[in-house]
Write a structure and sequence with these properties.
This protein is of the alpha/beta class. The protein has a single domain, classed as Vaccinia Virus protein VP39 (Rossmann fold), CATH 3.40.50.150. It is built from seven helices and eleven strands. The two termini are 27 Å apart.
């Protein structure tokens, strides 16, 4: 099994037993070079099997009144972060896309709370707002491409490259997923949900940044959102410092390269 990030040979890491949604034994493999971890079991599913698993899981979890994954709070924090960054001219506000948006929760909040338009696209859900015509999704045409809770579901490099391909030459790429220094060798790790099959590390994200041509990044802990910038640090860093100063704390954590916040 080859790593979809650095193309090194991966090796067996551990097994987890689910016995739910027709998912039984799942075998996780790890890349010894970049630390990327993936479920070989999920990667080898047919498209029909993969779609059925996602539909079964999301139909139950999205309809739960308990909101077990704290989504509503996160959606608002993400909308708020994007609003503040536009106010401080860190992100251009002309043309935005949320790829893999679900029902379009972030877009709904951006419109209602901040009068910002975020176009929406999803392969499995019908968004409630700003649904884009797929013919308008042309390469390098968006100032900002957002994807929240997507990277951990992606089984191939072509899909990652496709999502990123919509960011324009001076644009930004917003990513929400869990990115630690290393993936724990622990079947009870809380991020091993039945539909999560790809687990990124600080090093694997740096490799992606380099391959896609991004120079620096910021992270906001409240929204759990990274923003990758094509523009140079000399342009971005002073604006980050200005917004942090205006708020009175390090709202945005900045770094040349990938902001490896979670060690």
């Amino acid at each position: 099994m080859k790593c979809i990030i650095c193309y090194s040979d991966m090796k067996f890491y551990f097994t987890k037993i689910f016995n739910i949604y027709d998912l039984k034994e799942v075998h996780y493999w790890i890349c010894p070079h970049c630390g990327f971890c993936a479920s070989k079991t999920h990667f080898e599913m047919t498209d029909i099997e993969w779609t059925n698993l996602n539909n079964s899981f999301h139909n139950k979890s999205h309809n739960s009144e308990e909101n077990p994954y704290n989504r509503n709070q996160r959606y608002f924090k993400q909308a708020q972060m994007l609003h503040l960054m536009t106010k401080h001219k860190l992100i251009d506000k002309n043309n935005w896309l949320d790829w893999g948006c679900g029902v379009g929760a972030v877009s709904l909040l951006l419109k209602k709370m901040f009068s910002i338009k975020l176009m929406t696209y999803d392969k499995y859900f019908t968004p409630k707002i700003n649904l884009i015509d797929v013919r308008a999704m042309t390469a390098r045409s968006f100032d900002l491409v957002v994807n929240t809770a997507v990277f951990e579901h992606v089984r191939d490099r072509d899909t990652l490259n496709e999502i990123e391909s919509y960011v324009n030459a001076s644009g930004c790429f917003a990513i929400h997923t869990l990115i630690p220094e290393a993936i724990p060798k622990n079947p009870e790790w809380m991020y091993l949900l039945p539909v999560h099959c790809a687990f990124h590390t600080n090093k694997s994200m740096q490799i992606l940044m380099d391959s896609w041509g991004y120079n620096c990044s910021v992270y906001n802990e409240e929204s759990k959102l990274w923003i990758l910038f094509r523009k140079k640090s000399s342009v971005i860093k002073p604006k980050v410092e200005k917004i942090n100063k205006s708020l009175g704390w390090n709202y945005l954590h900045f770094k040349d390269g990938f902001m490896d916040y979670w060690k």
